[in-house]
Amino acid sequence: MTGAFIISSGRCGSTMMSNLINTHADILSVSEFFIDIASNGYELDAAFGSEKIDGQEFWQRINFKPPIMNVLLANDRPYPEMLYPYRDPNSRFSAQTGVPSLQMTMLPHLTDDHDALCDELEPQVIAQPVQSLRDHFEDLFAILMNKFGKKTWVERSGGSVPFASEIRKVWPEGKYIHVFRNGMDTARSMSVHEGFKIVLGGEAIKEYLGVSPYFSDDRENVDKVPSHLRFLLPECFDVEAFDKYVLPLDMIGGMWSDNIKQGFETLASLPKENVIHIDYDRFCDNPVEQLKTVVEFLGVDCPEDWLNSTASKVKKSGGAWKKLPEDQQKILLEACRPGMELIERRIADGTVL
Questions:
Q1: pTM of the model
Q2: Whose CA, among 32, 102, 128, 259, lies 20 to 30 Å from 55?
């Protein structure tokens, strides 16, 4: 069964969207699943490869412990989307054991009894036949839909635009919800977000080390790593330095602009009935109408009482970038200009809700 996908840059309201639809009686909200299996985009074949595998191997893939996220847990610096209660002594996994992909966000997003749900899923998933990854995912989602009484599913991984083309290859007939937010607020949020800091900081180290510091123990070129980046190496991770670390605004703003362009281009060839584009600020200004459009797009009923109650929980945030020093605001505005102008054009031509 084909479901839908929320595609986003990250830090733009896509988590809010997952949380809203998670309360709908007919929608299975699958949160942060693909990006966790794909190890923050480093292992895309783990989620989107073309080979056929059996249920045992699929179970192993979705229970792989993603290195980058577990470095954050080991240093007690999770980002908010990492929901597993690893500090709870009654939890199965901890910072010391590491947390698997399936449990990092996906199952805790669905239930507080996530460890028991994981046990319930294991024999059913392992029993799945040799088949494509798409079929494995859809069988897993079908099990969960049956358990929770849902009619359709929606997967959302924050920061998924860079691998949206991979999702499209696997689900060419899927429905896609493209979520974005104004560039200045998004880039400012990215610049201080634990996930973006460790991923992009790790990429900076890779330029000197030759390998990712989180996926390889090779330290042959460690002397080439600049001193101002060494605090990100897992073997000498410095929490205080990490907390103070802020990604360069010109770099992150430029990345956001590229991301916006890529998002529109990747989804441009889809039939109009299979894609909607949602601007966070416009959504928050008119949550009842826009949320209704999203739910109807997903092909399920939208009860008025649920709609009004859920829409009332939407609280618009933003404006933190305006508290930056004036010179930093100018840098951010200039870096985000291409993306902002593209969004304005897409609003003007009716592409954006």
A1: 0.97
A2: 32
Name which of 61, 64, 87, 91 is nearest 74 in CA terms.
87
Measured from the Cβ of residue 228, the count of other Cβ atoms closer than 10 Å reads 10
- Main-chain dihedrals φ then ψ at residue 52, nearest 5 degrees: -100, 135
User: How many alpha carbons lie under 13 Å from residue 257 in its C-beta half-sphere?
Assistant: 18
The domain that holds 293 is classified in CATH as: 3.40.50
Answer whether residue 195 is part of any domain. Answer: no
Cα 271 to Cα 264: distance, rounded to the nearest angstrom: 13
Domain count, the chain: 1
Strands (E), 201-246: none
What is the enclosing helix (H) or strand (E) of 339?
Answer: helix 326-348
Q: What is the pLDDT of residue 2?
A: 83
Residue 237 placed within a domain: no
Q: What does residue 107 show for φ and ψ, rounded to 5 degrees?
A: -70, -45
Query: How is residue 231 written in tokens?
Result: 């605090």
> Residue with structure tokens 């930056």?
324
Token pair of 137, please?
A: 């995912």
Q: Which amino acid is at 210?
A: G
pLDDT tens across 298-351, in order?
999 999 999 999 999 999 999 999 999 999 999 999 999 999 999 999 999 999
3-state class of 271 per DSSP? coil
Per-residue pLDDT tens over the stretch 252-302: 999 999 999 999 999 999 999 999 999 999 999 999 999 999 999 999 999
Is residue 312 within 8 Å of 288, Cβ to Cβ? no
175-200 pLDDT, tens per residue?
A: 999 999 999 999 999 999 999 999 99
The answer as to whether 36 is a domain residue is yes
Instruction: Give dist(CA 188, CA 180) in Å, integer.
Output: 14
In a domain, 301, yes or no: yes
Question: What percent of the chain has pLDDT above 70?
Answer: 100
Q: Which domain holds residue 81?
A: 4-184+270-311
